[in-house]
Design goal:
The complex is a heterodimer of chains A (136) and B (311). With 136 residues, chain A is of the alpha/beta class. Chain A contains five helices and five strands, in the order E-H-E-H-E-H-E-H-E-H. In chain A, helix 1 crosses helix 5 and helix 2 crosses helix 3. Chain B is globular, with a radius of gyration of 21 Å.
Chain lengths: 136, 311
């Protein structure tokens, strides 16, 4: 049977913090999650930490996925986590992707990013990660 | 639940976001919230923004909200984008055009997927709008999915419907056809800096002179949403429409029609759900199979299903 169209859906915010303007990766991930049956809110490029956290709050998302290529993840991600906390939204599932050196993994894990998808990652793994970790 | 409603009534945005999700997902808790909040709704001026895909609805919605903020009003926005008919997934991208409003404490933007509803909106749109209205926004703007000729549902949800047109999208016969043009309370020619804008304005005005005598003639305005031009006049025209609704008695009449439509439409879903529950899946498959094989016509099959209700 096809799923009921009004059944509870997983809502995902895909956001690009920082100043890099290349959002192909973010769009590919958004599209894969859409095809997986999620409702994906895409906010576009050049988002500040405050804008990302505020969008997560207003849209009541279950998941926040961040895409970053500029190398500023260790500066920006802690601020995003902080802004989410301020708004009581540190309950979201976090994941990230982009150009992120292996040596930064422990720091990001400590922040709450248990999954990091680098170039070459399979989009199906991202969809599976989201469905495996969101309890609705 | 009590805690959430209390925080909602104190103006907590997190609580508003949570309540909308419960209502949108049609949970039992969501029904309770709606029952508690509905009597508080009916104060906001609800505005529908509709028009073709790419006509500039999102940008226009953002610019109109910014105009209301300059006037000291608060604004809730519900922006609907289509769900996939195959996976039920959706890309909700209307926020991209409303970035400047994200951190404004007087604005709340919520994206909704159409979840299989026809007519340009979402199945629970009236409920979500009522929740935003009850929260206390002065204006609630409802942005439809890209509408073609026949997506007219928004007129039943909003007090004032704004139809967004663009130059270069068809001759005046397109606008003469029945449907979407008939629901417009305010007509906007957006992208008015593009060639053909003035021609389109006069074509629309000429068409409106053909409206039945004595009927209200909607104003035709020009905007350039990307530059924020024309929004003082648009906000004024929307306010004039509300004044007209109130002074003509049209407000009560429209509200009664909308309520009737809403109640009947919910009753229809309840009945359908009861029929589904009363029908074993195998029996439905059998009936559907007979129709597919052309042994039975679809009306007789549906009658057989409906008969299960009082079996």
């Amino acid at each position: 049977m096809t799923p009921s169209p009004t059944a509870t859906k997983i809502r995902v915010l895909i956001a690009k913090p920082g100043l890099d303007g290349h959002d192909r990766g973010a769009k590919v991930v958004a599209r894969a999650l859409r095809d997986g049956g999620c409702e994906v809110i895409y906010t576009g490029i050049r988002q500040t930490p405050e804008m990302i956290a505020e969008a997560a709050l207003q849209e009541d998302v279950d998941v926040v996925g961040l895409s970053i290529l500029s190398g500023a993840h260790l500066e920006l991600f802690p601020r995003i986590v902080d802004e989410l906390k301020k708004r009581g939204r540190d309950d979201v599932l976090l994941f990230c992707g982009g150009i992120i050196p292996e040596e930064d993994t422990p720091a990001l894990e400590k922040l709450g990013f248990q999954a990091i998808f680098r170039p070459g990652a399979n989009t199906q793994d991202i969809v599976k990660y989201v469905f495996d970790h969101v309890t609705k | 639940m009590d805690g959430l409603i209390e925080r909602f009534l104190q103006g907590d945005r997190r609580a508003l976001a949570r309540v909308i999700s419960r209502v949108e997902n049609e949970t039992a808790e969501g029904r309770e919230f709606l029952r508690a909040l509905f009597p508080r709704s009916g104060r906001a001026h609800t505005i529908g923004v509709t028009g073709g895909a790419g006509s500039g609805k999102s940008t226009l919605t953002g610019a109109l909200a910014a105009e209301y903020r300059r006037r000291g009003h608060t604004v809730g926005i519900v922006a609907v984008d289509p769900s996939s008919p195959f996976t039920q997934g959706a890309i909700l991208g209307d926020r991209i055009r409303m970035q400047d409003l994200t951190l404004d404490p007087g604005v709340y933007v919520r994206s909704m997927a159409s979840r299989g509803a026809l007519g340009g909106l979402a199945p629970t749109i009236d409920d979500v709008v009522a929740v935003m209205d009850a929260y206390g926004f002065d204006f609630v703007i409802i942005e439809t999915v890209g509408a073609g000729q026949d997506e007219v549902e928004v007129a039943g949800t909003a007090l004032t419907t704004v139809l967004v047109n663009n130059p270069g999208t068809g001759d005046d016969i397109q606008a003469m056809k029945a449907g979407i043009l008939e629901i417009a309370d305010v007509l906007v020619v957006n992208k008015a800096d593009h060639p053909g804008a003035d021609v389109l304005v006069s074509q629309l005005q000429a068409l409106l002179t053909l409206s039945p005598a004595g009927s209200r003639r909607p104003p035709v305005l020009k905007t350039i949403a990307t530059k924020g031009e024309g929004f003082g006049a648009l906000a004024d025209a929307i306010a004039d429409h509300r004044t007209y609704l109130e002074s003509s008695g049209e407000m009560e009449r429209q509200r009664a029609i909308d309520a009737r439509h809403q109640v009947l439409s919910i009753a229809r879903s309840i009945l359908l759900e009861r029929i589904r529950q009363a029908t074993p899946e195998a029996e439905l498959d059998d009936l559907v199979g007979q129709v597919a094989a052309r042994h039975l016509d679809p009306h007789s099959a549906a009658e057989a299903l409906a008969a299960r209700l009082h079996a």
